[in-house]
């Protein structure tokens, strides 16, 4: 079966990028996500924005400022938007239905936060036998009480590179590698 790709952009919402919750290399991460999204659109591959709906926790409530995507993200009319309700994007969301409808079997994963929503999604996608490519420099997080954001990102990139895949594959590639290999 030919690989049909989709770009997932996880939780790049205003409420996750505040003065109280600074993220590592926000500008660089957003720039790489925007450039990658342009490549996907040009190749007629879906760009899927995932937004956390935290109504249950009374945060990230749809249509509030914290729920909105970062204004620096380039969003196009034909992009897809999916709400999620837990760290794992697949949990009680419409994502898997949408991916099946689009016949997607290869997911390029980007977004925030490396050690929560990105990690949970990578694990879930692997368990569901998707081919997964984590964009090594396309995800971010904040400093944690015992470790810097940069080290969290480095750690998870290592974890994902060393996972035992299921029937799918797992790769961790940086933006420049993806640009050269995937979109010639």
Automatic annotation (TrEMBL):
SUPFAM superfamilies: Isochorismatase-like hydrolases (SSF52499). Coiled coil: none annotated. Gene3D superfamilies: Isochorismatase-like (3.40.50.850). Its EC number is 3.-.-.-. Keywords: Hydrolase. InterPro entries: Isochorismatase-like_dom, Isochorismatase-like_hydrls, Isochorismatase-like_sf. GO terms for molecular function: hydrolase activity. Residues 6-144 form the Isochorismatase-like domain. PANTHER family: ISOCHORISMATASE, PEROXYUREIDOACRYLATE/UREIDOACRYLATE AMIDOHYDROLASE-RELATED. This is Cysteine hydrolase family protein. It comes from Agaribacillus aureus.
